[in-house]
Design a protein that fits this description.
Helix content: 25-40%
Shape: elongated
Number of helices: 5
Radius of gyration: 28 Å
Order of helices and strands: HHHHH
Strand content: under 5%
Structural class: mainly alpha
Length: about 150
């Protein structure tokens, strides 16, 4: 019998403020071709900070790797199953997402004049009729009952 491997999402990335080392920087600048001037000669003293306390000193590579690791924890329909009870993360088939991005839908505004909304109103009216016919109900509403249903 082989060694058991832990599976699933392991999120043990330390905070960026817990990382870094003295003297490390996340940027590099070219050599200056002008004379250096102290900031207090240009900016009033009450607007200057002495230092950034607690700010991590990290290389650019370490910063990029840190935030890339965090971004990989984002949960998406392509990476796993959405459990029940997650109001804003319900599964929408890709075809629904494509239809929702169609120009006729994305440029609709709730306060646009009725004469510019006839197409979507017709679509909603026909959809309501189809749903009523399919379910045997006399009337249906397309009003979302909750955030997840609206999604």
């Amino acid at each position: 019998m082989g060694k058991r491997r832990d599976t699933g999402l392991i999120q043990d990335e330390p905070l960026i403020f817990e990382q870094g080392g003295k003297g490390r920087r996340g940027y590099s600048l070219p050599q200056w071709d002008i004379e250096e001037v102290e900031a207090n000669h240009l900016i009033p003293a009450h607007l200057l900070r002495n230092e950034l306390e607690g700010f991590p000193q990290m290389s650019e590579v370490d910063v990029v790797r840190h935030f890339t690791r965090l971004s990989q924890w984002n949960y998406g329909v392509d990476s796993g199953f959405y459990p029940l009870g997650s109001c804003t993360m319900k599964y929408n088939p890709k075809v629904n997402e494509e239809v929702a991005r169609m120009k006729g839908f994305t440029h609709i505004h709730p306060y646009q004049p009725e004469d510019l909304s006839q197409g979507i109103l017709k679509l909603m009216h026909e959809l309501g009729n189809f749903l009523g016919e399919i379910t045997g109900m006399d009337h249906v509403t397309l009003q979302p009952a909750a955030g997840a249903q609206g999604n």
